[in-house]
Amino acid sequence: MTDSTDRNPEPGQVRTPDTAWPLFEVFVRGKRGLNHVHVGSLHAPDERMALHNARNLYTRRNEGVSIWVVRAEHITASSPDEKDPFFAPSGDKVYRHPTFYELPDDVPHI
Description:
Blueprint: E1 23-30, E2 36-43, H1 47-58, E3 64-71, H2 83-87
Antiparallel strand pairs: 1-2, 1-3
């Protein structure tokens, strides 16, 4: 008999939604990049196994130097449908745009 907190069913027991492994989102930082990039999702029984599975699945050819795995249930995101009202406050802050600043000619690499 399995405990309700046990994510792994007994041998021969059918996996039901309440015993299914949680979904993890996987982010990989490439050798040349500075940012982690979302590369996909996977199911795993825990964080440690998710990290190992992500390594095997998403960095088979040494594409990355760092992997993050995050339970999908812990991610909060804005909706694309709310794009205009959510990001509108930044539109009236024109001073944040570099078009209002004059760059001196002697400043290199800008």
